[in-house]
Amino acid sequence: MGFIGRIRARLGRGRAEKGAGGEGTRRRPRIPPNNDDFENFVLSLLPASRYTLMHSVKGDPERMDDLSLPDFMFKDMRTGKLFWVVCRYVGSPNGDRSVTWCGDIQLQRYRDLPKHSHSRVFVALGVGGKLSAPERFYFFNINRVGLPTLEEPVYSRFAHPAEPIDLDGYD
């Protein structure tokens, strides 16, 4: 069993998850093919000269339904450390300007991941504009947020220009 398989086993996660109250199963909605545009945007901000892509759900229909892992895992070539990136695009904020970027169960899984993989988890959040060029882009460590819905004053602190990401400034 490879590294990713060991992480999945430690998390004890399968493809489906119990719905509220324990009955039935729920799967993450199938990501539309055009979501590749946002993932490509995020990949363009993590240059291959600095970060090696180690794992991706991109373009793999079987892995796209897997709720247990973020979209990408990279290795920082300067430090040798692994890190995960969750890619989420939201067409527009909720009526109160908040943004729901994941569900409660997904948030808990993403927050548990560092305990099992000893790797940080970051969220790349695009809001508005096009998938390939979001109007606003945010990048943050999952440990900096505690809710799947973020109020504007919270997520606006993590604004990032559409230029290469340097993890040295992120905790």
Q: How would you characterize the overall build of this protein?
A:
The chain has 5 helices and 9 strands; from the N terminus they run αββαβαβββαβββα. The strands form 3 sheets. The protein has a 5-stranded mixed β-sheet. Strands 1-2 form a two-stranded antiparallel ribbon. It has a two-stranded antiparallel sheet with strand order 6-9. Helix content is 23%, strand content 28%. A hairpin with a 6-residue loop joins β1 (17-18) and β2 (25-26). The chain is α+β, with helices and mostly antiparallel strands.
How many strand units?
9
Average pLDDT metric: 80
Helix proportion range: 10-25%
Number of helices: 5
Helix/strand/pairing category = alpha+beta
Describe the protein's topology:
Elements: H1 3-11, E1 17-18, E2 25-26, H2 36-44, E3 51-56, H3 61-64, E4 72-76, E5 82-90, E6 99-100, H4 104-117, E7 120-130, E8 133-141, E9 149-150, H5 152-155
Parallel strand pairs: 5-7
Antiparallel strand pairs: 1-2, 3-4, 4-5, 6-9, 7-8
Which labels suit this protein?
28% strand; 171 residues; globular; 5 helices; 5-stranded mixed β-sheet; 9 strands; alpha+beta; two-stranded antiparallel sheet
